[in-house]
Amino acid sequence: MDTIFYSLQEFMTFSKGITYLIMGAILILMPLYWLFLTDRDEKKETY
Amino acid sequence: MMERTSRISLRPMMTPFNVMLGIILAIGCVLTVLRFTGGLSVVTNLDDNNPWGIWIGFDLLCGVALAAGGYTTSAACYIFGLKRYHSAVRPAILTAFLGYALVVFALHYDVGRPWRLPFPIFWQQGTTSLLFEVGLCVFLYLTVLFIEFTPAAFEWLGFSKLREKILKLTILLTIFGVVLSTLHQSSLGALYTIVPSKLHPLWYSGYLPVYFFISSMFAGLSMVIFEGSLAHKYLHHKMDETHLRESEGVVLGFGKAASFIMAGYVAIKVIGLAVDNSWHYLFTGYGAWFLLELIGFVALPSFVYAIGVREKNIRLIQRTALWSVLGIVLNRFNISLIAFNWQLPTSERYFPSWMEIGVSLFIVAIGIVVYRFITANMPILYEHPDYRSEH
Question: What is the pLDDT of residues B165-175, one digit of tens each?
């Protein structure tokens, strides 16, 4: 992870790239965590 | 005969806890005199490198974060319409009111010259300063909390007309409370964005205001659960049927909310690491400490909360609430003390004097005494018989 950067452009490309990958993972993991948190709740009739 | 009567009536009060409180209060009074007659140097280890010590790190930062239960609970009940949490509102508002009142009280010890406290608000506003924003918000929010608290006092005093007038303002006050809390909880984090060279890169981030605000949410929820568990243990006889019936739902609902928010908090902390590319610091001593805070005191409690909610294990959720509260205290200590001035040699680092710790304990002790007085006399944990089922 200790990459050497020679310009701000390189730094931004690298850090933003990693950030977007993490955000993608979070978008998948957070709904799954919500399902884990709530799957034993009593189901409500919403119709 | 008089002597005998007074001895008998005093006996139930002489518990070890009360004696300890009495000793802390007595020592605190002496320390107060020393502080205001001799100045900061007599009672603190503060210096030019470390102008903010535990009176800011603990009394102010932790006090404000842990008092966040007021806005989270009232927002859940009055804005989101979750009326099943209604019985938790008054205890949460009381804790928040006392928390903020003690924050302002504690600030006097740090700032000194209490008679000049109104100056930044009424005489000389530093509108470009974050501290001014924090001061203004705390001033306004303390006023809001005081007004939100008054119906309980009016019920106790029998001022029913005044109570009715204040109750009509409930929604307005709740909205004010949420707006003001959003502003100053985040501003407290923003205060530390001006010290990028002093705060360790793992804790420093442009997102500090967001971290402080998000963490205040689960701090408040955890504090309501923790305080509720203490109230159940020691003030059980004060609670009415409604309070006892609703308490399990409050613990489960707040535990679920805290768990999900904590998971989100871990996520944005990881995003913060990625944005600043601070990964390599994780393999240092400070990195281990950072991971202990983030995994040991946020991610794990979040998961244990989830287990507690899934299995409807009230005891587990209550214990996790204390764990989360300690996590918040650790986070605020890390930012304001431990990871602050991290590059200085050990000899120039700050460690609080016993008198600073004594003053902090003194302030907590005042809070406990006032809380006990109010819950013993006012309808906080039960509904006043004259005003049942009005909400």
Answer: 888 988 999 99
